[in-house]
Write a structure and sequence with these properties.
- The protein is of the alpha/beta class.
- The chain has a single domain, classed as Purple Acid Phosphatase, chain A, domain 2 (4-Layer Sandwich).
- It has six helices and 13 strands.
- The strands form two sheets. Strands 1, 2, 3, 4, 11, 12 and 13 form a seven-stranded mixed beta sheet that branches. Strands 5-6-7-8-10-9 form a six-stranded mixed beta sheet, covered by helices on one side.
- The structure holds fe (ii) ion (2 copies).
- One fe (ii) ion binds next to loops.
C-alpha cells in the first residue's frame, strides 16, 4: 500500500502549487491512497465543500485538518463530509469525526488526526491517551496518523509511543518540512513534519511584510497570505508494506 501524504495546502498559492504539481507527483509515484492536510486550504482557513469535491475528483481520498478545523461558518457541514477527519482529541460532543475509515479494494485504512498540546492554544484532551482510546476501538489493515503539532519533542514522543501500533505517523502544522523521515524501531514510518504546500517566500504561508511587522511591533494582526511568491510543494510517499518513507520537496527557483 503506497500512500501520498501532502502537507498543509496553504490558501490560494497552496492550491496553485497543488494544481501545478499534483498530477506529475501522482504519475511518478503511483500511490494507492492520498491524504491531504486541508486545514489552511481555503481563504480564511479550513476546508470547503467545493475544494473537497474538486480534490476527491482528482484522486485525493481523505482530508485531515488541524487547529483551524472549526474556523469556517460552515464547519459543521464540512466536518460531516464522509472523508474528512478533524483532530480527535477535542472534547466530548465536538462536531465531526475522530477518525475516517476508508475501504480500498477490501482493505480497511483508518486515518486519525490528533492535535498537539505544547505551544498550542486549545484546551484539548491528551493526544497520547486519545490515541490509545481510538486504537482500542478500530480494527484496520492500515492505520495512519496525522499529528498536527508545534513541538518536535511532542511529535517524537507520540511517534515512539505509537511505534508498532500504527503504520505511519506524519507531522503537520509547522509548515516546514523536516529531513527526519525514518522507520522507527518497531516499524512505524515517521516524519516529524511533512511541510507546507504554498508560497515559498513567505512566513509559513503568511505575507512576508506583515510577518516582519508583527514581530517588530508585537501587535497581533489576522494573518494575510503571501500572494507574490514562487511555489513549494511538500509531501511524502509511504510504502506501508515495504516500510519506506521518502520526502517530496519541490521548491521553485
Ligand atoms: Fe497549517
Ligand atoms: Fe495548524
Amino acid at each position: 500500500m503506497k500512500v501520498l501524504f501532502i502537507g498543509d495546502i496553504y490558501m490560494e498559492l497552496g492550491q496553485k502549487a497543488f494544481n501545478k504539481y499534483f498530477l506529475s507527483v501522482k504519475n511518478e509515484h503511483k500511490p494507492h491512497f492520498i491524504i491531504v492536510n486541508g486545514e489552511n486550504i481555503e481563504k480564511g482557513n479550513g476546508l470547503s465543500k467545493e475544494i473537497y469535491k474538486e480534490y476527491l475528483e482528482q484522486g485525493v481520498n481523505v482530508f485531515t485538518l488541524g487547529n483551524h478545523a472549526f474556523s469556517r461558518r460552515d464547519a459543521r457541514e464540512v466536518l460531516d463530509l464522509p472523508y474528512v477527519t478533524r483532530p480527535a482529541n477535542y472534547g466530548l460532543g465536538t462536531m465531526g469525526k475522530e477518525w475516517v475509515e476508508y475501504n480500498y479494494n477490501g482493505q480497511k485504512i483508518v486515518v486519525i488526526n490528533l492535535l498537539g498540546r505544547v505551544f498550542m492554544r486549545d484546551p484539548i484532551d491528551n493526544p497520547f491517551t486519545k490515541a490509545d482510546e481510538i486504537l482500542k476501538k478500530v480494527t484496520a489493515d492500515y492505520v495512519i496518523v496525522d499529528f498536527h503539532a508545534e513541538a518536535t519533542s511532542e511529535k517524537y514522543a507520540l511517534a515512539h509511543y505509537l511505534d508498532g501500533r500504527v503504520d505511519a505517523i506524519i507531522g503537520t502544522h509547522t509548515h516546514v518540512p523536516t529531513a527526519d523521515n525514518m522507520v522507527l524501531p518497531k516499524g512505524t514510518l515517521f516524519q516529524s513534519d511533512v511541510g507546507m504546500t504554498g508560497a515559498k517566500y513567505s512566513i509559513i504561508g503568511g505575507e512576508v511584510a506583515q510577518g516582519i511587522r508583527k514581530f517588530i511591533s508585537g501587535v497581533p494582526e489576522r494573518v494575510k497570505p503571501e500572494i507574490n511568491s514562487v511555489l513549494q510543494f511538500n509531501a511524502c510517499i509511504l510504502d506501508l508494506d515495504n516500510k519506506t518513507i521518502e520526502r517530496i520537496n519541490i521548491y521553485e527557483e
